[in-house]
Write a structure and sequence with these properties.
mRNA binding; Nuclear cap binding protein subunit 1; globular; mainly alpha
């Protein structure tokens, strides 16, 4: 990595001399970026010699490319946190050679920190704080000024009328930097550091933790406590302090350059005041530290660090950083995880599996799309076929054993992951090991989990394949053959209402009748809700819907595509039949009755009915909570439908809101242009006024649409929460009257589904908290239900 080689490479190529000279700066800039980004990766030379060589290259290029080098170094500090100490050492070497550059870099980092905090980029800001703190070890920043900055951070806990999550972030930023810099700061400023830690301890003792139960993956504290993240980190820092700040895991390349770095002049950080709290600030939500393994689970090889050792924090933090940096490229991400520095000193596979599941099960939602974790684990199994699949199987077995206390939302994600994973490995699994679930009630977590996994596997395969892969003893848990249930079939009772009409309707559909012709045919269907002597009415006729929809779905039952085409072709008929709220509810009942053995078909057709506006979102919510659906209420697919419905409603509101915002911006630009061109001709002014008028009308229309959509959205959440409260209250009263324990399997599922709604849609629900509090979650409500709402409110306090 010598300067000579760098220059030689940039001169390579046979382009004409003039062309090369114009592109040379760009080539050199690209090469600088490549050299900086790739330092610390696998190389035949040692890391120290690579760093020294790169520092020489950059020093020589500073006169011409200083701003570019500053920009790249600031960027890698923010986006490649797993190589933190590599880059702090590089900056240290550059500072030792060029003091002014060191000063400019520190100033640039402080500017960047202020920008990231103002832009709500808190995870990036965290990496920048950690980077600055490690520069103390490299003799770039003076220890007293770093302590002063930490004191300013901790002073945020004394601010009034601010959310707890703001104070949490600043305390976490300080505590999470101490594994890197605690020793150095304590040696230089022990009194100040003791005072700082005492302030933090006081804050941690008084902060409220109502939110914790809502965020725990397991409700049981055994075998591993599920600790709140700040409490866990505080315990780790306390142990580190007790061990005299000695940790044995962070790679510290600057130690090799100590003789050079200790001669360098240090910079003082400029006084840093945390930006004031603003209402539009979005602080990171609290989380619970996921624990699945300890040293007893990895009996062979290196010992796993204890849950309160700081090494556990550092390893997990670095693995999270690798996933954050490379999650879009599963192959690169898997390779980077497996080539983790110091992997021979730790049971790396266990750490990787625990961190991946920790992210997948994170509440309210994982940091990345769920399917990424499946793809990453498959890639890891391919790269380490001799060891990683065994650890993954062990983890799956452990999670299966702990299903009774596992959060329902996390069980959903486990079902999705496990079924998808099995589909990539010929659905091979030692099912007999789970035979204990066969003797339990079908609604208990273990048999329910196996049943839902097999149902998901069937979506990724076909029914007979599932029958073939599981032992005969598991027959009771195999999903039903996904065939339709046509009530007007050959075996139908001749006295069944509407039976005679189905032939007429079926022939009309086969003969390609128009929507109008079908509606004329359906006029002959009697209305069971009306007496014979009533005047003919166009009100809700359930039999009409049953006859038409059962016949239509039966004729189109061959595939998803056939069903989609049928619904699209007779959209007008369906809209007419579902004119009332009862009609919308009944069409969903008929759809469920017809496809009761095919949950996937129900899901996609309900989705289609919402998209084509045949039914609305509130109707779907009312249908899910209706008595007819009680039998399937705890099934996974029902909640997939409900969450999909809520997401559609939210996207609809966002889309109209975006259109409104764009129209307002356009009008503002138009008005500004008019002011600038005020001295121009009258014609232009008239045209401008016409355009403004049109835009104002458009904004008015969009404003009405937004208000209407938001009202619909609020109503959807009110319907859902009201139904939850009714169901749960009935259960609690029934249990109290009969003197039975309220904590049934159904109750756990229902209360955790209520939590799930709050967590998965927390950003939207926050807007309507006032309404919810006034109308539904009042002080008179049973405390079991009210606690869930209070936990939700505490997430953002």
């Amino acid at each position: 990595m010598s300067r000579r080689r760098h220059s030689d490479e940039s001169d390579a190529g046979s382009q004409p001399h003039k062309r090369r000279r114009t592109s040379e700066p760009i080539e050199i800039e690209d090469r600088l970026e490549s050299l900086i980004c790739r330092v610390g990766e696998k190389s035949t030379s040692s890391l120290e010699s690579n760093l020294e060589g790169l520092a020489g290259v950059l020093e020589a290029d500073l006169p011409n490319y200083k701003s570019k080098i500053l920009r790249i170094l600031c960027a890698v500090a923010r986006i490649l946190p797993e190589k933190l100490t590599v880059y702090t050492t590089l900056v240290g070497l550059l500072n030792a050679r060029n003091y002014n550059f060191g000063g400019e870099f520190v100033e640039a980092m402080i500017r960047q920190l202020k920008e990231t905090l103002k832009s709500n980029l808190y995870s990036e800001a965290l990496y920048l704080v950690r980077f600055l703190s490690d520069l103390v070890n490299c003799h770039v920043i003076a220890a007293p000024s770093m302590v002063a900055m930490f004191e300013n951070f901790v002073s945020v806990t004394q601010e009034e009328d601010i959310p707890q999550v703001r104070s949490d972030w600043y305390v976490y930023a300080v505590l999470s930097s101490l594994p890197w810099v605690g020793k150095e700061l304590y040696e230089k400023k022990d009194v100040e550091m003791d005072r700082l830690l005492n302030q933090i301890e006081g804050y941690l003792k008084r902060r409220q933790k109502t939110h914790v139960p809502m965020l725990q993956v397991w409700t049981a504290e055994k075998p591993h406590p599920q600790e709140e993240y700040l409490d866990c980190l505080w315990a780790q820092v306390q142990k580190l302090k007790k061990d005299r700040w000695q940790e044995r895991h962070i790679l510290r390349p600057y130690i090799a350059f100590d003789s050079v770095l200790c001669e360098a002049l240090q910079h003082n950080l400029p006084p840093f005041t945390p930006p004031a709290h603003s209402d539009d600030a979005v602080y990171p939500m609290p989380h619970v530290v996921f624990r699945m393994f300890d040293y007893t689970d990895a009996p062979e090889g290196p010992v796993m660090p204890g849950s309160h050792s700081v090494e556990r924090f550092v390893i997990e933090e670095n693995l999270h950083c690798i996933i954050k940096s490379h999650w879009r490229e599963r192959k690169t991400c898997a390779a980077q995880l497996l080539s983790y520095p110091g992997k021979n000193k730790i049971p790396l596979n266990y750490h990787i599996v625990e961190v991946i599941f920790g992210e997948l099960f994170q509440l309210p939602g994982p940091p990345h799309i769920d399917v990424m974790y499946t793809a990453l684990l498959i890639e890891l199994c391919k790269l380490q076929p001799g060891s990683l699949p065994q650890v993954l199987a062990q983890a799956t077995e452990m999670m299966y054993m702990r299903l009774d206390t596992m959060n329902t939302t996390c069980i959903d994600r486990l079902i999705n992951w496990f079924s998808h994973h099995l589909s990539n490995f010929q659905f091979r699994w030692s099912w007999d090991d789970w035979a204990d679930c066969l003797t339990q009630d079908i609604e208990k977590p273990k048999p329910k989990f196996v049943k839902e996994v097999l149902e998901k596997c069937m979506r990724l395969s076909y029914h007979q394949r599932i029958v073939d892969i599981v032992p005969p003893s598991f027959t009771a848990l195999i999903p039903a053959n996904p065939v339709c249930s046509y009530k007007y079939g050959d075996e139908a009772d001749s006295s069944l209402p509407g039976l005679a009409m189905t032939t007429t309707v079926g022939n009309a559909i086969k003969n390609r009748a128009s929507n109008e012709e079908i509606l004329i045919v359906l006029k002959d269907v009697p209305n069971p809700n009306q007496d014979d002597d009533d005047d003919e009415g166009d009100g809700f006729n359930p039999l009409k819907i049953e006859v038409f929809l059962q016949t239509l779905l039966h004729l189109a039952a061959k595939s998803f595509s056939h069903s989609f085409s049928a619904l699209a072709k007779f959209h007008e008929v369906l809209k007419t039949l579902t004119d009332s709220d009862e009609g919308k509810l009944h069409i969903l009942r008929v759809l469920y009755e017809f496809w009761r053995n095919h949950p996937q078909m129900i899901s996609v057709l309900v989705d289609k009915l919402i998209r084509t506006q045949i039914v609305d979102c509130a109707a779907v919510a009312n249908w899910i909570f209706s008595p007819e659906m009680a039998h399937d209420f705890t099934r996974f697919y029902v909640w997939e439908i409900l969450h999909s419905t809520i997401r559609k409603m939210n996207k609809h509101v966002q889309k109209i809101q975006k259109e409104l915002d764009e129209a307002k911006v356009k009008l503002e630009k138009q008005q500004n242009k008019k002011q600038r061109d005020s001295g121009d001709e009258e014609d232009m002014e008239k045209n401008s006024e016409d355009e403004e008028g049109q835009l104002e009308e458009q904004i008015e229309r969009l404003q009405e649409k937004v208000e209407s959509a938001q009202s619909e959205q609020k109503n959807l959440f009110l319907v859902i929460f009201q139904r939850f409260i009714m169901l749960l209250t009935e259960h609690l009263v029934r249990c109290e009257t009969s003197g039975i324990d309220i904590n049934t399997t159904w109750y756990k599922n229902c209360i955790e589904r209520l939590q799930q709604i709050f967590l998965m849609h927390h950003v939207i629900i926050q807007q309507y908290m006032g309404t919810l509090e006034n109308l539904l979650f009042t002080a008179e409500l049973d405390h079991h239900i009210l606690t869930v709402y209070q936990q939700f409110c505490a997430l953002h306090l």
